[in-house]
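Backbone-to-sequence.
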């Protein structure tokens, strides 16, 4: 009798664990489907902005939309698109969204400075979920503009094997860590941005204006 009771107990435990596993899988599947729907929504928004580039040659709305979608999909507060000025060996913040929009857009820094500089130099993405533990991070911009970077993800913007700049997203609203899904999404958006910049022939010089 005791053996039968133990067997029944084991069966019930197995069924409970299996039910929990199936519920978890279903939840993950629902979340993944919701994320894919949001990805499609982002692509449609970028397509609309891309039509402005084709019709009126306006690059800035497209780049701004790309950063907007990057922030929305990553649930992040701040982001930027930087381009390399080969003549001055500087990086310029061409598009900035978030708290530093008015002050950081148009700002320049040495091309080899900080994590952005590392990403551009090595043509590799970076996920830094605890910025205090990453020696490549430079606190210069935080100190200058009174900002606090806690975590970030940065990917190179590459066209025809040439690094044009980088796309960076900073500080999730939720406080959660950036992950591989964020990296995949941002890599696609950086690729679109690079292709548009390359196609438009935009040059990062003193008088450059992405609207042109």
């Amino acid at each position: 009798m005791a053996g039968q009771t133990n067997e029944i107990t084991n069966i019930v435990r197995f069924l409970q664990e299996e039910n929990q596993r199936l519920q978890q899988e279903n939840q993950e599947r629902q979340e993944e489907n919701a994320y894919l729907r949001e990805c499609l929504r982002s692509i449609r928004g970028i397509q609309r902005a891309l039509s402005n580039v084709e019709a009126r040659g306006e690059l800035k709305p497209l780049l701004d939309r790309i950063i907007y979608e990057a922030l929305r999909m990553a649930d992040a507060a701040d982001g930027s698109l930087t381009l390399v000025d080969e003549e001055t060996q500087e990086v310029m913040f061409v598009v900035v969204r978030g708290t530093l929009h008015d002050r950081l857009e148009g700002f320049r820094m040495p091309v080899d400075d900080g994590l952005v500089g590392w990403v551009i130099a090595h043509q590799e993405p970076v996920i830094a979920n605890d910025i205090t533990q990453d020696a490549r991070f430079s606190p210069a911009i935080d100190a200058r503009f009174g900002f606090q970077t806690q975590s970030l993800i940065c990917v190179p913007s590459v066209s025809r094997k040439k690094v044009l700049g980088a796309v960076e997203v900073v500080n999730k609203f939720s406080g959660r860590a950036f992950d591989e899904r964020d990296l995949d999404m941002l890599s696609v958006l950086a690729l679109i941005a690079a292709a548009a910049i390359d196609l438009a022939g935009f040059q990062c010089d003193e008088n450059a204006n992405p609207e042109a």
